């Protein structure tokens, strides 16, 4: 199997680092067994960054290793020690790399040395219990988990950045012309499709230095996939001008320079986007007698079309100087009209899933679905094995207004509530009116609001059930005392002589006839 040496399109699978988890810890030292929460935060995960490197000219490295991952953040520790930051993963790409999704959406056009694109953001680190402490929750027995880093699949497509593009039929002499006017040494042979990859050459004309690239394998039907031109036509999209290299000494029957020019122009037109580029025509191989005669025959016809035509010989160097300075003239004018490019750093910010509001509530099958950047992030940060952490999540959702929105939408107790994307959501049973924001005394890591059998909950429900039957002057405290000590307080109101009368007895003389 042949090993490629030039790759201009790859699919890359990238993963940013996960944020480290926060830690729940209590400060302890001699004579201070409970010195308060001191758990540190987790460190953020590393991001994946694409950076334009002038020394990189191909995407070959990513062809062999298409999976790249950034470093995870470190976990927090006690004594207020935060976790280490995960190192960013910087991926060098060639100048002119187009970044797009698998669906074809263009994310960025990487042009200019040093240009950076944060393509995948690292996950945030989770907060430790020291950062979660407040006046109402003074000693949290939980910490937040780190968020996962972004994962995505992207396509990198290289479009060579060159000032001049050479186009023409195979064996027209494009590679020979680059070798004659620059220090580039491409492979040259006397058979078609010798050039299998774009060649770049640096040319100097007076005070102007510019680059020249050739597009291999352009033939009739190249825009539809014939030959090699369909794969490499993209490399001339950034060129300031195009030079038609026409073979005037071809031995193939039925070919002539004018027809060759029309065929290539037709393929360029069908590819699209190149109509505004200036054209030059290089009639190559005039060192051959038949080539010189044919060049003289078509010279006037081509100039009548408004084209600048240069008879040249890549073998002898004849006419190349005039062609070089004509190229430099076009390049200089194009650079003067081009705005100054500055090094940029691009950070992709995904659109909010809810359209910009904090959250949305919609009916989803048999339940309700809550979508929003905040609720979904809080879900990812919650340790569901810790009841206190779940209670903290309930507090946050309640303060955000999720419970109120569900009630207004028609949700009733017991309805399933889905939070997050349908492919990876968390399901809750809706339980409205849970007291929130109150410090609950109990064992660390527990939230008594989620214990239906606790005595305080049973007592409160019993009081509520007996409030409707209380006497006119009886207070809530009287009802509570009656429930707690029925033998002492008894009922507040009763009928004299009835079984509820505490002074009544079966042998009472007043009741005996």
From TrEMBL:
Which branch of life, at top level?
A: Bacteria
Q: Which residues bind Mg(2+)?
A: 175, 195
- Region (Disordered) residue ranges read 445-513
Q: What is its EC number?
A: 3.6.5.-
Q: Which residues form the OCT domain?
A: 351-432
- What is its EC class? hydrolase
Give the protein's cofactors.
Mg(2+)
Locate the compositionally biased regions of type Basic and acidic residues: 445-455, 462-485
Job description of the protein: An essential GTPase which binds GTP, GDP and possibly (p)ppGpp with moderate affinity, with high nucleotide exchange rates and a fairly low GTP hydrolysis rate. Plays a role in control of the cell cycle, stress response, ribosome biogenesis and in those bacteria that undergo differentiation, in morphogenesis control.
Which family is this sequence assigned to?
Belongs to the TRAFAC class OBG-HflX-like GTPase superfamily. OBG GTPase family.
Q: How does it assemble?
A: Monomer.
Q: What is this protein called?
A: GTPase Obg
**Species whose genome carries this gene:** Nocardioides fonticola
Q: Which gene encodes it?
A: obgE
């Amino acid at each position: 199997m042949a090993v490629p040496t030039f790759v201009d399109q790859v699919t890359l699978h990238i993963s940013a680092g996960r944020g480290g988890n926060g830690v729940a810890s209590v400060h302890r030292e001699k004579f201070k067994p409970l010195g308060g929460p001191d758990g540190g935060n987790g460190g953020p995960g590393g991001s994946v960054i694409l950076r334009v490197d002038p020394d990189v000219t191909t995407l070959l490295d990513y062809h062999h290793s298409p999976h790249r991952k950034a470093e995870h953040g470190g976990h927090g520790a006690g004594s207020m020690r935060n976790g280490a930051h995960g190192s960013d993963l910087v991926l060098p790409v060639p100048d002119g790399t187009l970044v797009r999704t698998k669906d074809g959406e263009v994310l960025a056009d990487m042009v200019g040395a040093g240009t950076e694109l944060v393509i995948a953001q690292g996950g945030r680190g989770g907060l430790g219990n020291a950062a979660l402490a407040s006046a109402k929750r003074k000693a949290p027995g939980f910490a937040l988990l780190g968020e996962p880093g972004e994962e995505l699949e992207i396509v990198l497509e290289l479009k060579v950045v060159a000032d001049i593009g050479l186009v023409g039929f195979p064996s027209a002499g494009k590679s020979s012309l680059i070798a004659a006017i620059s220090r580039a040494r491409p492979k040259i042979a006397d058979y078609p499709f010798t050039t299998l990859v774009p060649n770049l050459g640096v040319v100097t004309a007076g005070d102007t230095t510019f680059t020249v690239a050739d597009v291999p394998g352009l033939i009739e039907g190249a825009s539809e996939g014939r030959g090699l031109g369909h794969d490499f036509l993209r490399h001339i999209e950034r060129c300031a001008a195009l030079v038609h290299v026409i073979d005037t000494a071809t031995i193939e029957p039925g070919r002539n320079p004018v027809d060759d020019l029309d065929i290539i122009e037709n393929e360029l037109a069908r590819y699209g986007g190149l109509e505004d580029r200036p054209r030059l025509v290089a009639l190559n191989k005039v060192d051959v007698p038949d080539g010189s005669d044919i060049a003289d025959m078509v010279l006037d016809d081509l100039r009548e079309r408004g084209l600048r035509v240069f008879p040249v010989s890549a073998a002898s160097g004849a006419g190349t100087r005039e062609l070089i300075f004509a190229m430099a003239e076009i390049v200089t004018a194009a650079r003067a009209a081009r705005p100054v490019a500055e090094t940029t750093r691009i950070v992709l910010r995904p659109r909010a899933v809810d359209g910009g509001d904090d959250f949305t509530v919609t009916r989803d099958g048999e339940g309700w679905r809550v979508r929003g950047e905040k609720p979904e992030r809080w879900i990812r940060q919650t340790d569901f094995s810790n009841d206190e952490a779940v209670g903290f999540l309930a507090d946050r959702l309640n303060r955000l207004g999720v419970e109120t929105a569900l009630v207004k939408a028609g949700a009733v107790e017991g309805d399933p509530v889905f939070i997050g994307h349908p492919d990876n959501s968390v399901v809750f049973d809706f339980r409205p009116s849970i007291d929130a924001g109150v410090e609950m005394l109990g064992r660390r890591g527990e939230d008594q609001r989620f214990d239906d059998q606790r005595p305080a909950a049973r007592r409160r429900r019993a009081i509520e059930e007996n409030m409707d039957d209380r006497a006119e002057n009886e207070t809530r405290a009287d009802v509570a005392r009656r429930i707690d000590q029925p033998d002492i307080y008894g009922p507040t109101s009763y009928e004299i002589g009835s079984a509820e009368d505490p002074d009544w007895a079966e042998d009472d003389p007043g009741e005996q006839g």
